[in-house]
């Protein structure tokens, strides 16, 4: 029965591949189609071919960075439509920039581009509608659900079933519960029937499709657990053991070995080895380029701050960085000097700015609203205290205040703080006057840390250009 239906993982992988290939093909085919519509022939000049190939490559990369091909996102239509529209628009603007840089804008027909853009947008939309409908049919037939059996009908097995059904009932189908005992066990748990012992399990597998066998027995089972594993060697399904402590108390990142002894990885440094070098190159090169490119703007802002209010152009304050170590952060001064004295000790900190704060100068209000006051932190990046992308550093007093009430707050310090971050591009900015607001930010920071990649950083930097500088809560 195992080959009677396709597994959920194969279907999701196939859907992702269809979407990838479909997007690229649509970009190329509609480019040719738009040329035929406008010019009445298919004799495309060579430079059109080069532009179309560039568009296909950019589409593949931009859409990948936008997470459009990840299995959980494929059938989220609004998610797909929003990010697909932004990504395809970004592809067109990038092509326009490349044509401008290479001085080839006159080689392309503007009418062709204006026909091509909406054609591709419509085609991408239709492709996603069809795929969402097909996934709905697969889900209705149960093809996207894994058939799972659980061994162990005791308290732990019952808890495991409840946790699994509560967290992801759409992708898992627990078809049966098995136990060596014949007494002191329930007839069913959360609608899942108890179907017998291990012999009954092996017989059931021969007659029904089972993708996963989960052994829900505690550590103390010892020899019973080893005997059980031996009896499951012939089962044509994945066999997994979910120990009680790990399942509900300890986080597990992966498995590894030290000196040949298997180990369970509970916490890992998020950026190590080659990735650490790539991150360092990204920061230093990016900071240098930005400082050179923005130097006229930086000088103009510094001069404006000095001319409009008494005091230095830069404001310095102690913050916590990587490994909870203190460093001095640089910002353009946005408050009057008497209200914005440098904070050089852990006990001295300036209260967070509020809407209409009288301490903020008129220039400072513009700088804070546009986040231009953060630009001097490029110096911190060059010093190695900060990164271009990462969790925002908070004032020492605020760090200690929220660290005392939010359990995972200090996990933010497992990476260097950043000028921009996943939290900021998702609109979580402004005053953090309640633990709930800070807790929400911490969730986004930890998501960034757990899912870090160079592409993720590039995506955040790109989004910062559109949503990271101005926000209604920045004041």
Structure notes:
The protein has helices at residues 8-39, 46-65, 77-101, 110-141, 155-167, 198-207, 223-231, 244-248, 273-308, 362-370, 377-383, 396-403, 422-425, 435-450, 454-468; strands at 146-151, 172-178, 188-189, 192-196, 212-215, 238-241, 254-258, 261-265, 314-320, 326-332, 387-389, 418-420. With 475 residues, it is α/β, with parallel strands linked by helices. The chain folds into three domains: 8-141, no CATH class; 146-265, Rossmann fold (3-Layer(aba) Sandwich), CATH 3.40.50; 273-468, no CATH class. β7 and β8 form a beta hairpin.
What's the short story on this structure?
The chain has helices spanning 8-39, 46-65, 77-101, 110-141, 155-167, 198-207, 223-231, 244-248, 273-308, 362-370, 377-383, 396-403, 422-425, 435-450, 454-468; strands at 146-151, 172-178, 188-189, 192-196, 212-215, 238-241, 254-258, 261-265, 314-320, 326-332, 387-389, 418-420. With 475 residues, it is α/β, with parallel strands linked by helices. The chain has 3 domains: 8-141, no CATH class; 146-265, 3-Layer(aba) Sandwich (Rossmann fold), CATH 3.40.50; 273-468, no CATH class.
């Amino acid at each position: 029965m195992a080959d009677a239906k396709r597994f959920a993982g194969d279907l999701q992988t196939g859907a992702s591949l269809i979407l990838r290939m479909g997007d690229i093909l649509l970009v190329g085919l509609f480019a040719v189609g738009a040329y035929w519509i406008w010019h009445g022939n298919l004799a495309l000049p060579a430079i059109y071919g080069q532009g179309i190939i560039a568009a296909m490559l950019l589409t593949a990369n931009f859409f990948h960075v936008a997470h459009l091909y990840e299995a959980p996102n494929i059938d989220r239509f609004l998610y797909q439509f929003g990010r697909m529209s932004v990504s395809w628009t970004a592809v067109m603007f990038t092509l326009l920039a490349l044509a401008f840089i290479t001085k080839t804008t006159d080689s392309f027909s503007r009418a062709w581009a204006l026909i091509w853009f909406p054609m591709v947008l419509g085609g991408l939309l239709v492709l996603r509608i069809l795929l969402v409908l097909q996934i709905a049919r697969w889900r209705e037939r149960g093809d996207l659900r894994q058939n799972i059996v659980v061994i162990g009908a005791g308290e732990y097995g019952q808890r495991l079933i409840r946790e699994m059904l509560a967290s992801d009932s759409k992708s898992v189908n627990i078809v049966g519960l098995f136990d060596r005992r014949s007494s002191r066990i329930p007839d069913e748990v959360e609608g899942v029937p108890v179907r017998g012992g291990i012999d009954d399990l092996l017989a059931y597998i021969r007659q029904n499709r089972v993708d996963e066998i989960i052994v829900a027995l505690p550590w103390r089972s010892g020899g019973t657990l080893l005997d059980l594993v031996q009896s499951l060697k012939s089962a044509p399904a994945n066999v997994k053991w979910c120990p009680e402590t790990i399942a509900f108390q300890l986080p597990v990142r992966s498995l590894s070995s030290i000196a040949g002894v298997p180990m369970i990885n509970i916490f890992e440094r998020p950026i190590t080895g080659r990735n650490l070098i790539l991150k360092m190159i990204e920061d230093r090169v990016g900071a240098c380029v930005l400082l050179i490119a923005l130097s006229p703007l930086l000088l103009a802002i510094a001069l404006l701050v000095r001319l409009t209010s008494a005091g230095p152009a830069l404001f310095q304050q102690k913050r916590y960085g990587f490994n909870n170590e203190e460093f001095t952060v640089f910002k353009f001064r946005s408050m009057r000097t008497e209200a914005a004295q440098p904070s050089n000790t852990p006990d001295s900190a300036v209260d967070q700015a509020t809407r209409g704060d009288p301490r903020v100068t008129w220039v400072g209000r513009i700088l804070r609203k546009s986040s231009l006051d953060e630009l001097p932190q490029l110096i911190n990046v060059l010093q190695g205290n900060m990164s271009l992308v990462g969790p925002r550093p908070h004032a020492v007093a605020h760090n200690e205040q929220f660290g005392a009430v939010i359990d995972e707050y200090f996990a933010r310090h497992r990476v260097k703080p950043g000028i921009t971050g996943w939290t900021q591009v998702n609109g979580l900015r402004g005053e953090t006057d309640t633990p709930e607001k800070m807790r929400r930010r911490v969730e986004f920071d930890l998501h960034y840390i757990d899912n870090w990649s160079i592409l993720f950083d590039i995506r955040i930097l790109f989004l910062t250009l559109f949503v990271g500088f101005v926000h209604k809560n920045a004041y």
